[in-house]
UniProtKB/TrEMBL annotation:
Subunit structure: Homotetramer.
Keyword Oxidoreductase: yes
Name of the protein this chain belongs to: Aldehyde dehydrogenase domain
Every Aldehyde dehydrogenase domain range: 29-264, 266-458
Keywords: NAD, Oxidoreductase
Family of the protein in this entry: Belongs to the aldehyde dehydrogenase family.
Molecular function per GO: aldehyde dehydrogenase [NAD(P)+] activity
Organism: Dillenia turbinata
Length: 473
């Protein structure tokens, strides 16, 4: 493994100044009611990037009030889908114009590789906006012939109302638009609570949304902690729906809050990392992985040669190191890595465990860091059974030369998405979400717009008209 962790970021990119650090409510940047702030940290160094206004219940109240007004009385849900499309396309263009700065902002706040932010995170955010902009003017109901022939009805697809979006730190930009873009297309008004570890890009998007012409109150951003701002949003009686992505533990809290108030819930998610390898190729793969790990470059996320940057925040860094210790203690063999890197920042060596048993914690729980666990299997049936014997089911990948195996395994694995001979390929048109404890509902795809719509049936008789004028030509 090569370490390039104390690189000179300025040599590779312009490090942006922080322009937005207040709450965005009703089209304005404002301080929190309490005046409180929290620090957002740069995982390259562990140093403070900016102090961000910390939203709490009173601020969520103000944001919900603004969104409620924008939804109940404002133009956004009432304008044509085509008008919403044009404004969303303008926002996509503004993001494109500021791509370098947004990519660098994401890198300093989340530690994501700058080169990936430039080609994945920010461009995918633009794609999501453009995709759902295109959906905004294609929201249709259906015409129904009622059974007795004396009535007909049609359905209207109407926005659900005020939506609260709660976002994790691993994809701050993509998750922001995965949630807001279909909700905007549907005509909803919303409050976004970004993760406390990565609030900066969301505030920048709020600013650009206003420039693009999204009316005040439609898109509010309230940074803050989960237990304060997040919890207040989830239990607010004037919020019609919550869309949440994060850990299962928080998902449970969100569901509990929803049960105690009037909320509907979008999705919750988890990601897992267990690699099952057939016995005939196990040793060869271990050999190859060992070579790869030795050449893997961990370093400053602005450095173009880096393949892995720091963990996004201190809590996650410590969690990953704790899981590595569990792995060692439970008897898995460390093939590579296993240690933190350097004195500064949150860097962890790429870590590979072999001889992992299904009941070890590293195989059962989500680590969410650069740690891979290899497990050996004999038959395909056994692999399917063991892969399915987890409480999660977000994604699975199959590597095989056999079309039959690819077909059998993809239909048998209980996961929301299955990649065959590829991994992590996503597209706005491809629904994404989990089976089992990994979630409800789907983000992306046209069905994500449905989540933010509700159906109204309108029924009318087709007989018994008192009079008729029929013009025929
Ligand atoms: P988390 O659950 O701790 O936090 C997610 C969000 O929920 C944050 O904005 C947080 O402030 C908020 N939150 C925390 N407590 C809350 C409460 N009581 N009420 C309301 N909101 C609250 O998760 P995290 O550690 O930030 O993110 C990592 C997790 O997210 C991982 O478990 C990962 O699997 C999951 N995730 C899944 C997907 C996906 O698969 N689609 C994508 C991204 C993240
Ligand atoms: Mg940060």
């Amino acid at each position: 493994m090569e370490e390039h962790c104390n690189g000179n970021s300025e040599a590779y990119a312009k490090i942006p100044k922080i322009k937005f650090s207040k709450l965005f409510i009703n089209g304005e940047f404002v301080d929190s009611v309490s005046g409180k702030k929290f620090e957002t940290i740069d995982p390259r160094s562990g140093e403070v990037i900016a102090e961000v206004a910390a939203g709490d219940k009173e601020d969520v109240d103000l944001a919900v009030k603004a969104a409620r007004f924008a939804f109940d009385h404002g133009p956004w849900p009432r304008m044509s889908g085509g008008e919403r499309r044009k404004i969303m396309m303008k926002l996509a263009n503004l993001i494109e114009e500021n791509l370098e700065e947004l990519a660098a902002l994401e890198t300093i706040d989340a530690g994501k590789l700058f080169k990936w932010c430039k080609i994945i995170d920010i461009p995918n955010s633009i794609d999501l906006l453009q995709y759902y902009a295109g959906a905004a003017d294609k929201i249709h109901g259906s015409t129904l012939k009622m059974c007795n022939g004396q009535y007909q009805s049609y359905t209207l697809r109407e926005p659900v109302g005020v939506v609260g979006h709660i976002i994790p730190w691993n994809f701050p930009s993509i998750m922001f638009f995965m949630k807001t873009a279909p909700a905007l297309a549907a005509g909803c008004a919303m409050i976004v609570k970004p993760a406390e570890q990565t609030p900066l890009s969301a505030l920048y998007y709020a600013y650009l949304a206003k420039q693009a012409g999204i009316p005040d109150g439609v898109l509010n951003v309230v940074p803050g902690y989960g237990a304060t701002a997040g919890a207040a949003l989830c239990s607010h009686m004037n919020v019609d729906m919550i869309s949440f992505t994060g850990s299962t533990e928080t998902g449970r809290k969100v569901l509990r809050a929803a049960a105690d108030s009037n909320l509907k819930i979008g999705e919750i998610c988890m990601a897992g990392s267990r690699v099952f390898v057939q016995e005939g190729i196990y040793d060869k793969l271990v050999e190859k992985l060992s070579v790869m790990a030795n050449h893997w470059v961990v370093g400053d996320p602005f450095d173009p040669s880096a393949q892995q940057g720091p963990q996004a925040h201190k809590g996650q860094y410590e969690k990953v190191l704790t899981y590595i210790e569990h792995g060692k203690r439970e008897g898995a063999t460390l093939l590579a890595g296993g240690k933190p890197i350097g004195e500064k920042g949150y860097y962890v060596q790429p870590t590979i465990f072999i001889d992992v048993k299904d009941d070890m914690r590293i195989a059962k729980e989500e680590i969410f860091g650069p740690v891979m666990s290899l497990m050996k299997f004999k038959t395909i049936e056994e692999a399917i059974e063991r892969a399915n014997s987890t409480q999660y089911g977000l994604a699975a990948g199959i590597v095989t030369n056999s079309l039959n195996i690819a077909n059998t395994v993809s239909r048998s694995v209980r996961a929301g998405i299955v990649w065959i001979n590829c991994y992590f390929t996503l597209d706005p048109d491809c629904p994404y979400g989990g089976y089992k404890m990994s979630g409800y509902g789907r983000d992306q795809g046209l069905e994500a717009v449905d989540k933010y719509l509700q159906t109204k049936s309108v029924v009318t008789p087709v007989y018994n008209s008192p009079w008729l004028i029929l013009i025929s030509s």
